[in-house]
Design brief:
Number of strands: 8
Strand content: 25-35%
Radius of gyration: 15 Å
Largest sheet: 8 strands, antiparallel
Shape: globular
Helix content: 10-25%
Order of helices and strands: HEEEEEHHEEE
Structural class: alpha+beta
DNA sequence: CATGGGATTGACT
DNA sequence: GTCAATCCCATGC
């Protein structure tokens, strides 16, 4: 990504990440769904302030924040905004691109559409875990690269976030319009 | 030190 | 549609 890409308002970064490429070892996929979280609103882990758990969230933009959800799933986020601001983009769904056979082995012979159609599914499919918390998304084991040519002009739909109990009304979910690889369909469109 | 909740998924009715 | 699994860590006693 270009220098300073993550050092911007989290809503801009979340929208711009749609169509970008997530890679880990031999597996890669295109981001088709992402959500923004910011320490100014209570759905964000950083809302409670700086703790050992959320330290990465307040750290350098461009780091990966990986945390365990419901005691079971690892969720991948990209840290944004300057150091001291707790904000990140949750990667919620990918369109599988490379290493699909390996993804199927890890997830157990899934149809292509459901291989990475959820934040916990895609980390399992790509082999991403808590050990990746804090890695550099530019040069680390897990990387995010710019949009492939076919995704240069992707249309982005906006919706409310999923699976949260606070600040549910904020339209901070971004999806590639018409994608068949989303975790859930888009309700509203902008 | 004990407790409870969560940015989910998959299996079941 | 409902519901359990399962663990990190924030919070409170």
């Amino acid at each position: 990504m270009k220098p300073g890409f993550y050092d911007r308002p989290v809503l801009e970064v979340a929208r711009d990440l749609i169509g970008c490429l997530v890679q880990h070892e031999a597996c890669a996929g295109v981001i088709v769904e992402a959500e923004a979280y910011h320490d100014s609103e209570p759905a964000c882990h950083a809302f409670a302030g700086l703790t050992p758990r959320t330290a990465t969230l307040f750290g350098e933009p461009g780091l990966a924040y990986v945390y365990r959800s419901y005691g079971v799933h690892a969720l991948l986020n990209a840290v944004t905004e300057p150091v001291g601001v707790g904000a990140a983009v949750l990667i919620r769904a990918l369109e599988p691109l490379e290493g699909i056979e390996l993804m199927r082995e890890r997830r157990g012979l899934e149809p292509l559409r459901s291989l990475c159609s959820g934040p916990g599914k895609l980390t399992q499919a790509l082999g991403i875990g808590l050990r990746h918390n804090g890695v550099d998304l530019e040069h680390g084991a897990v990387t995010i690269a710019g949009r492939p040519p076919a995704w240069r002009d992707v249309q982005v739909s906006v919706d409310t976030r999923i699976g949260i109990t606070k600040a549910v009304e904020l339209p901070w979910r971004f999806c590639a319009s018409g994608s068949r690889y989303l975790s859930r369909p888009v309700r509203a469109r902008v």
